[in-house]
Amino acid sequence: MLKNVYPITKNILSSGKNISLLLARLTVAYGFYGPAMEKWSDISSVAEWFGGTLGIPFPTLNAYLAATTELLGVVLLTLGLFTRLISIPLMVVMVVAITTVHLSHGFSAGNNGFEIPLYYLLFLALFASLGAGKFSLDHLLFGEEQ
């Protein structure tokens, strides 16, 4: 019975793939918006935090790179433009955030752990491998399909 039900279920659920990718892109873009704007509102403090507390090399350069990547990610993910490409540097930002800030707090988001950045990292990996879906400029301009 399951052998007969599975293909039907798969066809029904697959029809929501493109709206799911759109909603996921918009959610992740929204999630990057706040941190990007906070960084840009006081980039010198971010650079000090990067260099002092976190020990990130070239803190000013890396503060600008992180803030720019996040803000560019907001725009490109929202539009679904160059989605696969922007996902890669955003994944790097998430790996750095996990290793320098969140890992020492454990997994739980309630303790500032790495739970939420991990979810972002996984969503970005999906965007890198699946693309933006039909509701995107990638599809409109490049005919990109999954």
Notes on the structure:
There is one protein chain. With 146 residues, the protein is mostly helical. The protein has one domain. The protein contains 7 helices and no strands. The longest helix is centred in the N-terminal third of the chain and has 25 residues. It starts with a helix and ends with a helix. The model has no long low-confidence stretch (mean pLDDT 96).
Core attributes:
7 helices, 146 residues, 75% helix, mainly alpha
Topology (elements, then pairings):
Blueprint: H1 2-14, H2 17-41, H3 43-51, H4 59-79, H5 83-102, H6 115-130, H7 137-142
Radius of gyration over all CA atoms, rounded: 18 Å
> How many β-strands, per DSSP?
0
Strand content: under 5%
Helix/strand/pairing category: mainly alpha
Roughly what is the average pLDDT, rounded to an integer?
A: 96
Order of secondary-structure elements: HHHHHHH
Total discrete domains: 1
Low-pLDDT segments: none
* Biggest sheet character: none
